[in-house]
UniProtKB/TrEMBL annotation:
Organism: Candidatus Yanofskybacteria bacterium RIFCSPHIGHO2_01_FULL_41_53
PANTHER family per UniProt: STAGE V SPORULATION PROTEIN R
Protein name per the record: SpoVR protein-like N-terminal domain-containing protein
Record-annotated SpoVR protein-like N-terminal domain positions: 7-465
InterPro entries in the record: Spore_V_R, SpoVR_N
Family matches, as Pfam families: SpoVR
Length: 569
C-alpha cells in the first residue's frame, strides 16, 4: 500500500475543485492510496481500516478470500473510509482515467460523511488514530495475559456477538441534548430537573400556581446576574425559602440523578457498569475490550444505516461530474462499460442494487422539486391529469438544494419512505419497477421467476424489508433476579436467527458471571403448509407464533414456552 503519485494527486485535486463548484461540500485534506489485489484481500476483513485491532476471525476470512479470489478473481475499484482526514484506496490495476471517475465517486461519499447528520458524532474523529490506540491497548493486554492471552480473543468474540445492539440513537440523543443546551444556554441537570419534572408535578397536583414558576425563573436569572452562572445557581438552591417550601427536593434530585446514571444505552455498556464478574480486579481488562468493541461498532452504525443512500448519492455524482469533465475524452466507451456494471438493475429484478435504485430515487425527488411537486399545493391534488401536468418550473437550483437537504437529513429508511404513496407509485411506474416472486413449475420441475406485483406499496415494502434493522433487545429489570440478566426482545416483525442464540447467550453468561435469560418470539409452520406455499405463492399459510424464553445457566441452555397462538389461513 502506497500513496498515489504526485501527478495523480494533482489530477484528483482538480476533481475536488469541480465537485465543490458543482455543489458538494467537504473540508480539509484527503489521503489516497494505491493497493494491490493482495492488499484488498487483507484489508477487507478489517473493514478497510488498516489500524483496526487484530482478531483471529479476520485471519480466517483472509484465507477464505484468497481461495475465492483464485477461483473468481475480483476486487473493488475503490474503498473510502470515514476518518480525519478521509482515506480512500484504489486498485493498482485501475488506469488513470478510471481513477478520475472513481475519485468523483469517492468525493460523493466524503460529502455524505461530512454533512449527513447521522454521522455527526464522527465529524471530528480521527478513527484510524483511535483504532491504532485500541489495537496497541489490546496487544498490551495480550502480553500481560501471557499464556492465557487466548481469553482476550474469547472476550472479543463474545462482545462482537451483540455489537449490532449498541445504543446508536441513544448516543445521538446525548449529542442533541448537548447541542440544545448550547442553543438555549448551558443548564445544569439540577436546574433542568427543578424547572422540568419537579415543578411540573407540583403544578399538576395544584400545590403551586403557574405564577410561582415564572417567579422562580426570575429569581434564578437575578441570582446568576449578580453572582455568575455557577455561584448564582448555588445561591438559588441555598435559599431558605426554597429549602423550607420543598425540603424533599434534594433527595428527589439525587434519586433521579442516580436513576439516570444507572440506565446504560445497551447491553455492552450495562455489562461494563454492572457485571460483578467483569468488575473483579483480575477481570477489569475486559472492560477495555468491551469498550473498544462498542466504540468501533458505534462508529460504523451510521454507515450501515445509510449504506444504500450513500451509494446512490456517490453514483449520482460520479456520473454527473465525470461526464462533464474534459478528461473523459477518448474514454467514453470505457466509462459507459464500467458505469453499466455499477448502475445496473439486478438480474431478473430480484433484490436491490443501491447504486442504481437509490440514484434513481434521488433523481426522481430532484425532478419533483424542480416542478414544485413537493409542495402542499401539489400533494393535495386529486385529479390525475392535473397531477401529471403540474409544473411550477422552479429550475435546477431548487432541485439541487432539495438534493442537498435530503443528503443532510435522511438515512436509508427515511429516504425510502420520503415520498407519498401516490408519488412513489409514479416512481415505480416511471422506471418499470416490480416485485419479483418465485414459484415451482410442476411440469418442468424448475423454479420460475415471475412479476409478482407492480404496486408501489409492495415495492416499498420490499425495500423496507431489505434495510438494516437490528433487533430491539431491552434489559428487563423487573424480571431480573439476584444479579441475573433478563433480556426482552421487542418483536417488530422479524425473528432472531435462532441457531445463533445458544452461542451468544453462553458468551453473555460468561461476561455477566451469572444466569442470562432471553425472551423472544418464534414461528413454526407445518411441512404441508410450506409445500402449499411453494406451489401457490399467493397461498396464506397457517402458522403458530410462540413467545419463548431461552435461559443459559452454567453453560446449559434451556428453552421454555411462555405462550402460543395460531395465525393465518
Amino acid at each position: 500500500m502506497e500513496l498515489i503519485s504526485q501527478k495523480t494527486k494533482e489530477i484528483m485535486e482538480e476533481c475536488k475543485k469541480r465537485a465543490l463548484s458543482a455543489g458538494l461540500s467537504f473540508k480539509g485534506e484527503s489521503l489516497e492510496y494505491i493497493v494491490t489485489n493482495q492488499g484488498f484481500l487483507e484489508l477487507s476483513p478489517k473493514v478497510m481500516i488498516p489500524t483496526l485491532y487484530d482478531f483471529w476471525a479476520d485471519d480466517v476470512e483472509i484465507v477464505r478470500n484468497k481461495w475465492l479470489y483464485n477461483v473468481y478473481p475480483h476486487n473493488p475499484y475503490e474503498t473510502v473510509i470515514n476518518t480525519r482526514p478521509p482515506m480512500s484506496f484504489y486498485n493498482d490495476n485501475n488506469p488513470d482515467w478510471l481513477n478520475v471517475m472513481i475519485f468523483y465517486h469517492v468525493l460523493g461519499h466524503i460529502d455524505f460523511f461530512q454533512n449527513n447528520v447521522f454521522f455527526r458524532n464522527t465529524w471530528n474523529d480521527d478513527f484510524c488514530g483511535q483504532a491504532l490506540a485500541d489495537k496497541r491497548l489490546i496487544n498490551r493486554i495480550r502480553e500481560e495475559m501471557g499464556d492465557k492471552k487466548r481469553w482476550v480473543d474469547y472476550v472479543i468474540e463474545f462482545a462482537r456477538g451483540i455489537d449490532n445492539l449498541v445504543g446508536y440513537y441513544g448516543e445521538l440523543g446525548e449529542d442533541d441534548k448537548s447541542v440544545s443546551g448550547n442553543v438555549l444556554g448551558t443548564l445544569s441537570e439540577r436546574i433542568r430537573f427543578y424547572f422540568g419534572e419537579f415543578l411540573k408535578n407540583h403544578y399538576e397536583s395544584k400545590t403551586v400556581p403557574i405564577k410561582f414558576y415564572y417567579d422562580e425563573i426570575s429569581r434564578l436569572n437575578l441570582s446568576q446576574e449578580q453572582f455568575g452562572q455557577k455561584v448564582g445557581e448555588e445561591v438559588f438552591f441555598d435559599d431558605p425559602f426554597l429549602k423550607s417550601k420543598f425540603p424533599e427536593f434534594k433527595n428527589a434530585f439525587e434519586k433521579k440523578d442516580k436513576k439516570n446514571k444507572l440506565k446504560p444505552k445497551d447491553i455492552l455498556q450495562y455489562l461494563v457498569e454492572n457485571s460483578d464478574f467483569i468488575n473483579k480486579d483480575e477481570n477489569k481488562w475486559m472492560k477495555d475490550i468491551l469498550g473498544i468493541v462498542r466504540r468501533t461498532s458505534l462508529y460504523f452504525q451510521p454507515q450501515i444505516r445509510t449504506k444504500n443512500s450513500h451509494e446512490g448519492w456517490a453514483s449520482l455524482w460520479h456520473e454527473r461530474l465525470f461526464v462533464a469533465d474534459p478528461r473523459i475524452k477518448s474514454h467514453e466507451v470505457g466509462f459507459a462499460l464500467t458505469n453499466s456494471k455499477v448502475v445496473v438493475d439486478p438480474p431478473g429484478g430480484i433484490g436491490l442494487n443501491p447504486y442504481i435504485g437509490f440514484k434513481r430515487l434521488y433523481e426522481f425527488i430532484e425532478g419533483m422539486a424542480m416542478k414544485g411537486k413537493l409542495s402542499a399545493e401539489y400533494q393535495l391534488l386529486e385529479d390525475a391529469e392535473a397531477r401529471k401536468n403540474f409544473d411550477k418550473k422552479l429550475g435546477e437550483d431548487a432541485g439541487k438544494n432539495t438534493l442537498l437537504e435530503i443528503r443532510k437529513n435522511l438515512n436509508d429508511s427515511m429516504l425510502v419512505n420520503f415520498l407519498s404513496d401516490d408519488d412513489f407509485q409514479d416512481f415505480v411506474d416511471k422506471h418499470n419497477l416490480f416485485v419479483a416472486g418465485r414459484r415451482l413449475n410442476p411440469d418442468k420441475l424448475v423454479i420460475e421467476i415471475y412479476i409478482k406485483s407492480r404496486s408501489g406499496r409492495e415495492y416499498r415494502k420490499m425495500l423496507n424489508d431489505s434495510l438494516y434493522h437490528p433487533p430491539s433487545i431491552l434489559i428487563n429489570e423487573d424480571k431480573s433476579r439476584e444479579g441475573e440478566l433478563y433480556l426482552d426482545h421487542v418483536f417488530e416483525g422479524r425473528t432472531l436467527v435462532t441457531e445463533y442464540i445458544p452461542a451468544v447467550l453462553m458468551g453473555l453468561s460468561y461476561l455477566a458471571g451469572n444466569t442470562i435469560s432471553l425472551e423472544t418470539t418464534e414461528f413454526d409452520i407445518e411441512r404441508e403448509e410450506r409445500e402449499n406455499l411453494l406451489f401457490d405463492p399467493e397461498y396464506t399459510p397457517y402458522y403458530k407464533r410462540f413467545r419463548v424464553r431461552y435461559t443459559c445457566k452454567d453453560k446449559v441452555i434451556e428453552k421454555t414456552m411462555l405462550s402460543a397462538d395460531e395465525i393465518g389461513g
